[in-house]
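Retry 2 of 3 after timeout on previous attempt. Resubmitting structure tokens to design endpoint.
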């Protein structure tokens, strides 16, 4: 399925117009986040998944301008020895958002299916059990009035290579370079197969597949999805509570 989905914007779209719209969308997100934070009853978890150089960090910047006190970003890398000594969700659960907060996961609990599946260091029975464990975990989070948005940033193999080369050739992006990204690229087809399984088996909360070859289009789609999620929360500004008599 993934190989048949476009990673580029429709030709009918005007880049300048979309970027202009993105600024307005950000203003709306900032207002809605203030409202959620003020109400303090609901929260938002944004999960960003995708291959290396898909633009997960860039997607997190969709929320640039949001009050820093109301948002957190957590990037999940290879588990530490302490994390390996616990169940695979131990390191994740403590980072889900409190009421009134936005939490972004740059990679997530899904890495604990993706990497071991591709590299083959966890048996298939355990992997299959993790699908259902994750579904139940996400239901638990929802039960605490947290809306979950799951984005797969869909980048083409050519666009990924271009971005990885940029990290080698552009001194300002050297800090992003990781030799391991090139090794992971060699397993492209395997990762596509595992993602297909994820979409099929962990879709109680539906995945949104975002064409990500062009940042401005990716930002537009994610911004609109975030605004819809906020609007679906039916947020209300809290009423004034005071016993102060004002003349």
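Retry 2 succeeded. Sequence:
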């Amino acid at each position: 399925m993934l190989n048949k989905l476009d990673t580029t914007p429709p030709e009918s779209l005007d880049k300048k117009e979309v970027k202009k719209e993105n600024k307005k969308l950000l203003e709306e997100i900032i207002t809605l986040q203030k409202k959620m934070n003020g109400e303090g009853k609901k929260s938002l978890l944004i999960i960003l998944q995708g291959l290396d150089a898909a633009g997960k960090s860039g997607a997190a910047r969709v929320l640039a301008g949001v009050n820093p006190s109301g948002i957190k970003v957590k990037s999940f890398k290879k588990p530490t020895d302490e994390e390996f000594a616990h169940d695979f969700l131990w390191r994740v659960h403590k980072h889900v958002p409190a009421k009134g907060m936005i939490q972004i996961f740059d990679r997530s609990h899904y890495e604990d299916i993706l990497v071991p599946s591709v590299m083959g260091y966890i048996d298939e029975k355990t992997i299959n059990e993790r699908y259902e464990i994750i579904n139940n975990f996400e239901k638990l989070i929802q039960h605490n009035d947290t809306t979950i948005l799951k984005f797969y940033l869909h980048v083409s193999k050519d666009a990924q290579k271009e971005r990885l080369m940029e990290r080698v050739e552009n001194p300002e992006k050297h800090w992003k370079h990781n030799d391991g990204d090139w090794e992971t690229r060699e397993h492209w087809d395997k990762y596509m197969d595992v993602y297909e399984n994820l979409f099929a088996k962990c879709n109680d909360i539906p995945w949104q597949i975002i064409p990500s070859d062009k940042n401005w289009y990716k930002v537009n789609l994610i911004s609109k999805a975030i605004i819809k999620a906020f609007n679906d929360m039916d947020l209300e500004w809290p009423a004034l509570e005071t016993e102060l008599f004002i003349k």
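Attempt log closed. The longest helix spans residues 15-39.
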